[in-house]
Amino acid sequence: MSSKDPIFTPELKKVLKIFGLASFVLVLGLSFFNTKRAQNSGEDRTFRVTSSSRLYFLNLKAINYDREYRQDAGMTLFRHESMEASKESPSVDLVLILNPRKDEAYLYLEPRNTDWPLKIRVSSDSSAQDFVFQNGNKFDHLSYVKQLETFIRDFDSFELILDGKTVPIWTDENEKEGLNSVLDDFYRLLE
Q1: What are the distances in angstroms from CA 49 to CA 97, 99, 102?
Q2: Mean pLDDT over all residues of the chain?
């Protein structure tokens, strides 16, 4: 080969134009469809609340809740006003918790006038199913609520089992709508 041979021959220029243009178009095209980003921080975003959804909840939806600020935990508990817990009879509340330090929201099954473990019987049209829930962390409580969610959405009947006796819970139509509101607001917070 002589030293005067051109490196970029007309054939090589054509190949570079074709592959270069095709690569550019491919990268540009795929960038428009990249909706998922890599999660490289190692941080669990299961309970993460966005600022806009938190503001939406606090400004528009929180009016329907009774608030309790727990200074020891630095969290605010929201109990839906339609969940009227009796002072004497055992019950279970579905509580929405906002943790402003971590920008997270949680659901908590709160026993009233009873203690853990909670034994809940769900009765639908033709069958009954029993659930036993132990006190746990935020992941456990989310799992418990997800197990009950379809029954709550279908307005099935619920009973709390205490020493072999059953106590009806969430019997009023307003309570069932309150449960649905708490679930809707929780999922809206997490978006």
Answers
A1: 11, 9, 9
A2: 83
